[in-house]
Design a protein that fits this description.
495 residues, 17 strands, 7-stranded mixed beta sheet, alpha/beta, binds D-serine, disordered N terminus
Length: 495
Amino acid sequence: MQRLFPSALCLVRTTELLLQRSSVRMASQWTGQEPLAQTDPEIKSIIQNEKQRQKLGLELIASENFCSRAVQECLGSCLTNKYSEGYPGQRYYGGNECIDEIERLCQKRALDAYGLSPDQWGVNVQPYSGSPANFAVYTGLLAPHDRIMGLDLPDGGHLTHGFMTGKKKVSATSKYFESMAYHVNPQTGLIDFEGLRKSAKDFLPRMIIAGTSAYSRVLDYARFRDICNEVGAYLMSDMAHISGLVATGVHPSPFEFSDVVTTTTHKTLRGPRSGIIFYRRGVKGQDKAGKDIMYDYERKINSAVFPGLQGGPHNHQIAAVAVALKVASTPEFKEYQLQVVSNARTLAKALADRGYNIVTGGTDVHLFVVDLRSKSVDGSLAEHILELISISVNKNTVPGDTGSALHPSGLRIGTPALTSRYMKDSDMGNIAGFIDEGIKIVAEVKGQLSKPNLTVKQFNAHLAKDEATQKKVSELRGKVEVFATQFPMPGFEDH
Ligand code: DSN
């Protein structure tokens, strides 16, 4: 980047101007230099409360993590001021020298992190997050009403993989494309590949999506590829949940088998909230005359992101993603990912030892799903009591669930965030104990009130007037918070 140095005369004039401007600033009421606490004490105080909540609690939501101070510095930087529609070297606004440098660096680090050659893979780092990334792939490669197949949401899939019910096309992906779900085997909880193959042969999808939000076993990308080859479909792998595991070789890589790979950057990858699309480029094969056939995804996908769906890239996010990708190539990051999986296995076992059923019997990744049907407490009550004792989890359906999405029969539990606070296997027993004690409080209230279908509202009404239950909840919350505060918070200046 070219730098211009002002002459001495210029410096004198600049100093005069600055002095004039600062007296104007002092005369006005607001200069833009005031800290948040002064400009907006209300928002400052809510942020402080959220910080306390994160610090005092145990974060077990599988899709969340705590990003580093360096990532947060990018997010709070001047990069948020800049418009840069277009791509590096071809922008619709001036002043993008630094932004181009950042976006190119982010692209390079993204390819490096997954061991990809720029001759064979291209990357778009502009999607605002995972859902827009997925929609950009669909609109780029498919025509309206083309057919897609994704794992059903209640079986551990994602909304953007075509979710719909018998009554409603819930996700826009099922409104603008024709969607048919594939499933897990309700007995084993494992993806039913034979069912997928059979349905795909009848439905003839244009794209199959290999990706999950609540699935605890490694994905067999080769089997997905075989089925795609049989029916002539694209394979899009959405590795949002496992992208940190993939980057470190802790989960098999989807790249060898996929046409396109999408990801978010804030889950196991531990970056800011953002999205990335990787697409194949270069030579696809040869025609009958021996002439090269080239992949045509690059132009289609890039133009689907911009100008198709998005406006200006969020450059503060892109810089933060670049930082996260740099960290992802360190040996410490691999150790972290191994610990994430080890913690998930140990926690799942500790809960199983306390009589909880774990879907698929365990986990290979950063999360697992607890089937609460044998405990006769549904997922929403369990989520609620755990929230009252400063443990964050989310309710989740389990294979073969007959509960509704708002009252499913399970909990999804993940360990990326706890592991970012340096918790180890030896800490998981305590955490399982807290979860079990919390769920027992609800089960006891259910028994006392003889209400087999106890709702959160009824539980709260009981809690408001029953001092014994209040005491149990508050003592347990105290234990959880004392335990949690022993562990540092990455990214917090006062950790
Ligand atoms: N909302 C994310 C999750 O919790 O899995 C997926 O986008």
